[in-house]
Amino acid sequence: MTTTFNFTGRTAIVTGGTRGIGAAITLALLKAGAAVHATYAGNEAAAAAFQAACAEFAGRLTLHRFDVGDYAAVEHFYKGIEAAGVKPDILVNNAGIRRDGVVGMLSRDDWQKVLDTNLGGTYAMSKFAVQLMMRNRSGRIISITSPSGKLGFEGQANYAAAKAGQVAFTRSLSKEVARRGITVNCVSPGFIETDFIADLPAETAAAYRAMVPMKRFGKAEEVASSVLFLASAEAAYITGATLEITGGL
Ligand code: NDP
């Protein structure tokens, strides 16, 4: 991707920033000059491979491993970066998981884990970011939601509820911090080629592709560019919004 954004001197936090869409966002921010704290849950091999691929930006990329659904771990992360003098300008709530199952068979664990990661993570990460951003009277919070939250998909009640919750959370938080120069928005990607949907059976993937007016799945870089736009100074008057990157879905 050729980027025209300039984030030199800015600091971003990208959750789930070492794989898939998050990795594309981290890389785009690094290319645009930002310093990035990219987090991940536990896939050390992917994190190490990503770090190696970003060697040219080594001084500006820091990785952190913790579960965004664990409130105490999130608090610990923020205490650490605050002690190190880091002032986040941008937070991207990208970490997310799916654990699909029809409601009649959906385990309590699969319900809770999806809510904790996608929605609980967005709450906890945003809470501490907002405290730091308010001191600077500026900031950008962008959460990655999904069309599932708007349309609903069979077998995704947990995921759809969490993703719709992120949008409602975003609208409310945007109103709380609007006067402080902090914008809060969502990006809603359609079907994007990452590990996240790699487990779909071939016929399901073909049916989903046929649903997309552009007749193709999107690329992680195509989501990243919209995140950079919302993070930029040019997007200063956009808040409480959801930008759809879906090929027309
Ligand atoms: P991937 O599965 O490729 O990557 C997910 C990333 O999130 C990984 O870095 C993973 O860490 C991290 N992560 C997962 N759980 C946690 C956790 N509990 N704590 C911290 N980090 C965690 O997913 P995508 O890149 O495809 O998806 C990114 C976001 O985009 C998600 O929120 C997803 O819901 C959303 N989305 C994706 C779509 C798609 O088609 N791909 C469509 C619409 C929305 P680790 O590497 O350690 O496992």
Question: Which helices and strands appear, and what pairs or packs with what?
Answer:
Elements: E1 11-14, H1 20-31, E2 35-40, H2 44-53, E3 61-65, H3 71-83, E4 90-93, H4 108-136, E5 139-144, H5 148-151, H6 157-177, E6 182-189, H7 202-211, H8 220-231, E7 242-245
Parallel strand pairs: 1-2, 1-4, 2-3, 4-5, 5-6, 6-7
Helix pairs in contact: 1-8, 3-4, 4-6
This protein binds NADPH dihydro-nicotinamide-adenine-dinucleotide phosphate.
NADPH dihydro-nicotinamide-adenine-dinucleotide phosphate is lined by residues 15-16, 18-22, 39-43, 46, 67-69, 94-97, 117, 144, 146, 189, 191-192, 194-197.
Could you explain how this protein is built, in words?
- With 249 residues, this protein is α/β, with parallel strands linked by helices.
- It has a single domain, classed as NAD(P)-binding Rossmann-like Domain (Rossmann fold), CATH 3.40.50.720.
- The protein has helices at residues 20-31, 44-53, 71-83, 108-136, 148-151, 157-177, 202-211, 220-231; strands at residues 11-14, 35-40, 61-65, 90-93, 139-144, 182-189, 242-245.
- A seven-stranded parallel β-sheet has the order 3-2-1-4-5-6-7, with helices on both faces.
- Strand 4 (90-93), helix 4 and strand 5 (139-144) form a beta-alpha-beta unit.
- Helix 3 packs parallel to helix 4 (108-136).
- The longest helix has 29 residues, at 108-136.
- The protein is globular, with a radius of gyration of 17 Å.
- The mean pLDDT is 96.
- Bound molecules: NADPH dihydro-nicotinamide-adenine-dinucleotide phosphate (NDP).
- NADPH dihydro-nicotinamide-adenine-dinucleotide phosphate binds next to helix 1 and strand 2.
